[in-house]
Amino acid sequence: MTGQDVGVVDRHFDLTGRLSRAELEAARLALLEAARTAALPDGRGFDQDREGILACLASGDFTGKEAGAGRFTGFAATELEEAARRLPRGEAVAYLRYRYRWHHCPHSRTVPDFPIHLGIESASLCNLRCTMCFQSDPSFRRDKGNFGLMDFDLYRRIIDEGAAKGLCSVKLSIRGEPLLHPRLPDMVAYARKSRLLDVMLNTNATLLTEDKARALLDAEPHLIVFSVDADTKRTFESIRVGADFEAVVGNVERFLQIRAKDYPGSITRARVQMTVVPEAEGEIPAVRRRWASLADQVAIKRVVLRQADGDAATPGDWGCRVLWQRLDVHYDGGVWLCDNDYHGKCPLGDVRRDSLESIWHSGRMASLRALHAAGRRTEIAPCRRCSGL
Question: What is the pTM (predicted TM-score) of this model?
Answer without folding.
Answer: 0.92
